[in-house]
Amino acid sequence: MNSPAPSPGNMTSSTQKGCLARMKDALTLNCRQVLNLMVFFGFMFNYMLRVNLTIAIVEMVAKSNATAAAVVDNSTAAMERVVDEDGRTWFAWDAHKQNLILGSFFWGYLMTELPGGRLAEVVGARKVLGVSMLVSSLLTLITPAAANLSYLALVALRAVIGFLLGVTWPAMLPMAAHWIPPADRSKFMSNMMASSLGAAITMPVCGFLLSTWGWESTFYVTGGVALLWSALWFVLIFDSPAQHPRISMEERRFIEQALGDSVQASHKETLAVPWRQLLTSGPVWAIVLTHVASIYGFFTVVNQLPTFMKKVLHFNIKQNGLASSLPYLGKYLMALGTGVIADYLKSRNKISTTAIRKTFTTFAVGIPGLLMAVQVFAGNDQIASVAIFTLALTFNGAVTAGYLGNGLDIAPNFSGTIFGMANMLSSAGGFVSTLMVGSLTYQNDSYGQWQIIFGILSGVYVLGAVIYLFLGTGELQKWNSPRTPAEKEPESYPLRKNSA
């Protein structure tokens, strides 16, 4: 007996259900997409926690006219707090105290970059990065209370925040090593450049908060959004596909097959760092030294450009919102664009990983070096200087397709340690940059002295590009895997039976 044909109504209902199911699948993010989004916003909020005080301190310090009309609060140490007639709190901090407060962040930051990368390799980036942001968010929320207590309390608090946030960048590479297939790593690294986008956003947002609700609001808002991010991080992110309770079988299989045996499956057994091989590896030093050169140039441009523009060219770039934000926005867009191009070339096997890394590193570090050489001769013009520095920082964003994720290519098991070394030394380069500019311009802030600075900056950039051209590679190093795949223990996290 033939079964009755489905009625038009049933066919319509079935079609609608199928369409709804396909729409649901299209709108549902897979675990890698969620990780990309969380990293993007995480690095944006991370930067906000770093620079909120840099912006707020301008309004925290008492102005001379406000101090004259202020009621001094004798309950505070050294009478450093004043309250004006409108009830707003200010602080009578001199230049020495202000610099001490601003610099204290880096005391802690330098201490944890190398240990942070290694710790993420041992216990997992989920805990390291999550705890770092969570505690830093809570400390940011109590920053106004610390400032009202004493400037020394604020110094100590900022040093602890720096200590916590020092692990951020190095910890992300071990996470990428377990989650991101080689053909997608340049795009993933561009998410970390959201810190530059955060810089472009933080200044106007904090400026609005300062003018509307006072300096305290900058810490409450930035700390609050980072706290919310931290809670979501622990709910949504796990150290590997094998540990994720909600990943589909298809996605887990795709990731694990793409990664192969290049990275250990879990953190159950810690691989000892092969220090001798690592420290004598040319490819490792190519990453480290190029990173030092790149960040040295970045720190010099970002920290010293406003001084040069104001004192030599008589143009206050800090007051020009467009001029101060364009370099950061350009750097992020360049990072994203070159990341997409690099991953496309790798997925199509157009050129080798080594060629990709060398090409984009030369582009990202070499071109700013050439632009700094141009600045030596054309830097006495406001428009030319703004254009040159904007282009230099924009081109530098291509590091995400160059050396920045190169540790994942050569030694994914120890990528956190390698990046920790690079970031620690590059942060020290920031201090050297400050000392260089200070010594060359002491009592002689002329354009001639700045030409010397730009010449040195050009040489450092070009040297970094040349070092990477000679020593860099995209090949997996033998010392990445102390044991052969046959000696590895079987995966302890079974595939979910109900995944489809």
TrEMBL record:
GO terms for biological process: monoatomic anion transport. The chain crosses the membrane at residues 34-53, 128-147, 159-180, 192-213, 219-238, 284-305, 325-345, 357-377, 383-404, 416-438, 450-471. Residues 480-500 are annotated as: Disordered. InterPro entries: MFS, MFS_dom, MFS_Na/Anion_cotransporter, MFS_trans_sf. Residues 34-476 form the Major facilitator superfamily (MFS) profile domain. It comes from the Eukaryota. Keywords: Membrane, Symport, Transmembrane, Transmembrane helix, Transport. GO terms for cellular component: membrane. It is found in: Membrane. GO terms for molecular function: symporter activity. It is a multi-pass membrane protein. Its main location: membrane. PANTHER family: GH05102P (PTHR11662:SF411), SOLUTE CARRIER FAMILY 17 (PTHR11662). This is Sialin isoform X1. It comes from Thrips palmi (Melon thrips). The gene is LOC117647107.
